[in-house]
Every structure is written in C-alpha cells, then in structure tokens.
Write a structure and sequence with these properties.
The chain is of the alpha/beta class. It is 25% helix and 24% strand. Bound molecules: hypoxanthine (HPA). Hypoxanthine binds next to strand 7, strand 12 and strand 13.
Length: 250
C-alpha cells in the first residue's frame, strides 16, 4: 500500500476524508497521529486504498526536532505501507526555482543532529549498513513526472535536499555554505524519515513544496504571509498532481 506523509500546512483532512483511523502501538513510542485509511476521490473516480499520516500531528503541534520519526515509520510499516510519498516544505537555495513550485529531489545531505535516526541497536551483521547511495529512488518518480506533464504542473526533477535541525531558519552564511555544498533545497524533516524507511525496506520519495527563498537568497526577507501564500499554492499543486497520478480511470 502507498502511504502519504503530510508536512507543514497538511492537516488531518487535507488529503482525504478518512474512512478509518488506526492507532498502532510502537515499541519506539508515540506516532505523530493515528494512521488514516481512505481513497482519493474526484467525481466518479477514486484511487486504490492509501494511508496517510500528518507528520506534525493533529493540530500541527510537533516541531521537526520533536517528531518521533521511528514511531511514525514503524506505524506505517505495521499499517502495511510498501511505499511512501513524503511531502516536505522547503526553502530554495538559489533563484532558478520559485516559491509555489514543486521539486522531486534525488539527493540528501543530513545536517540534523540528536534525532533517533536508526532502528539498529546491535551490530549483528552487515545488514545494519543499508545502501543509501540513492536515497530517494522510487518507482513513483517516473509516475509522478508523467502525471505532472499530463496535469501541466511544474515539477523540477533532481536536486539536493539539506536537512537542517531547525526549528529556526538558517543564517545567510549557513545558506551560502549549503550552496557551496551543492544543496538546492533546505528543510527540516526529510531525515531520518528517509533512511528509517530504507532500513524497513519501504520505498521513499519526497515531493518538496517550495515555500520561500532560503535566508539571504534574492532580495526579499523571510515573511510569514509570503510563506503561507506559497504553501497554499504548492499544496494545491500537490493535490492536483496526486489526483492525476493516483486516480484510477473512471
Ligand atoms: N529552511 C529550513 N526549512 C524550511 C525552510 C527554510 O528556509 N522553508 C521551509 N522549511
């Protein structure tokens, strides 16, 4: 089953009206919210069954560094998820892409710290060392790109996501360093979610929603109303993209 992990601005019901909610007990602690099950629906068309987890919890109360990523991935594995499409709000480190647009990054640099980042607690054999050369490889890449072309949605392909600890935004010097490191996007939530999914054998990719130029990029300073407006535009673009990709023929 496909699981969608919703990010900033995605509430309980942004994706669909759930038909069922289930709490999963995890040995890693509390998951952000009960896992929801349902179908995308438009008119007489609907998708296969999906599950959905709002990463920041009901009422959006969990900041990125307080999310229990292990419990979330464990709950999705128990729910039967074999693939995850994660939605992550980001700043963009250059001026080639614009707020409101979507990106499918293909690489990650993890600058976060102090997060419970692995299910491995004993080195039994080399299986602890997962291959993470291509962190966002997924059968969904090609399907989402084809859907974006059909729907006329801007979906930039490729790019490196920098995962920062947050919750503060970066300094201008930090963003200059990220650019020198080859990063295109900066966010706070893709790691350790992506590597935990790889440890569990769950396919994972991220659709990044650009909500602001990163600190010091371009002329504008960070503005919350600007971020909210771009998030709304990008959220609508994601909803259209997912409908195009997931709805079965009517
Ligand atoms: N930096 C880090 N995380 C973010 C940003 C940003 O500029 N925008 C949205 N999430």
């Amino acid at each position: 089953m496909l699981a969608i992990i919703g990010g900033s601005g995605w509430s309980d019901t942004t994706l669909f009206k759930p038909q069922a909610r289930r709490e999963f007990l995890s040995r890693y602690g509390n998951c952000s919210a009960p896992v929801q099950f349902g179908h995308l629906q438009r008119g007489n068309r609907q998708s296969d069954e999906l599950c959905y987890l709002p990463r920041h919890g009901a009422g959006h109360r969990l900041p990125p560094h307080k999310i229990n990523y292990r419990a979330n991935v464990d709950a999705l594995a128990q729910a039967g998820a074999s693939s995850v499409i994660a939605l992550n709000a980001v700043g963009v480190c250059h001026t080639r892409w614009l707020p409101g647009e979507l990106v499918l990054p293909d690489q990650v640099i993890d600058y976060s710290w102090g997060r419970e980042h692995s299910f491995v607690d004993a080195l039994e054999d080399f299986s602890a060392h997962i291959d993470f050369t291509e962190p966002l490889q997924s059968e969904w890449r090609a399907r989402l790109l084809a859907a974006a072309a059909r729907a006329g949605t801007t979906l930039h392909e490729g790019g490196t996501y920098a995962c920062m600890q947050g919750p503060r935004f970066e300094t201008a010097a930090e963003v200059r360093k990220l650019r020198r490191d080859g990063c295109d996007l900066v966010g706070m939530t893709l790691m350790p979610e992506a590597s935990l999914c790889r440890e569990r054998g769950i396919d994972y990719l991220s659709i990044c929603l650009i909500v602001n130029p990163a600190a010091g990029v371009g002329d504008a300073s960070l503005s919350l109303p600007g971020i909210r407006a771009a998030l709304e535009r990008a959220t609508e673009a994601v909803r259209q993209l997912l409908a195009e990709a997931l709805l079965l023929p009517g």
